[in-house]
Write a structure and sequence with these properties.
The complex is a heterodimer. By secondary structure, chain A is an alpha+beta fold. Chain A has 2 domains: 44 residues, Pemi-like Protein 1, Chain: D (Ribbon), CATH 2.10.260; 34 residues, no CATH class. In chain A, a hairpin with a 2-residue loop joins strand 1 and strand 2. By secondary structure, chain B is α/β, with parallel strands linked by helices. Helices cover 57% and strands 12% of the residues of chain B. Chain B is globular. Chain B contains 7 helices and 5 strands; from the N terminus they run E-H-H-E-H-H-E-H-H-E-E-H. Chain B has a 5-stranded parallel beta sheet with strand order 3-2-1-4-5. The chains are: A alpha+beta, B alpha/beta. Chains A and B meet through helix 2 and helix 3 of A and helix 1, helix 3 and helix 4 of B.
Chain lengths: 78, 140
Amino acid sequence: MSLVEVDSRYRVTLTSDVRKMVEVRKGQRVYIVPKGDSFVVIPLSDDVDSQLQKLIGNVKFNKAARKKAETFLFKQAR
Amino acid sequence: MSYVADTEFLFSLRPRDRWTKPTRKILRKVRQHGIQVRLLESAVQEMRAVLFSQGKSHRDAYRSLILIKTKLTKHGILEEPTTIDDYILADKLREEHAELTYFDSLHAAAALRLNTILLTNDNVYARCEVKTITFEELAR
């Protein structure tokens, strides 16, 4: 954990303590999403396409898959 | 011209999807020719249901959505929220058209409410008066 200050341009520093826990490089893009009274910062992969393919490249999207998703959803709602 | 996109558009952002090619052309047109494509919230809902129903984890889901959001933001694709009117119209559509799935009816309802064209490769919408355009047609 580290205590840092928001600077005059609203920037904050990711200290070495934090960087030891979550790998991040200079120039790397991060995704920031507000969460109540805090923020979640998620480092982004440089290669969005290959990361997307890796994550959901094998997911089927056709009539059968859509039907399965609908059944899944209704089951969750019960 | 303004269009709303269904779930296939989200999956076509994968680099090896069968619709990747026309989708890349559409994204180029959005940036260069000012056509407006908005992503339906119901498409995101359906995508999540598809991912979970095929065993993907919550981590996979949110990481995928971050990557997708990155791509959409880069190309100026906005989001279109689902309203109560959409749910009302969707249920009415399903009452009249049994062939529509839960998500088909939500996509169709939003397109009808907005009086806009649905970007889809599915021909299921023909009978419920939804104006549609395929990926190939819009990419031309």
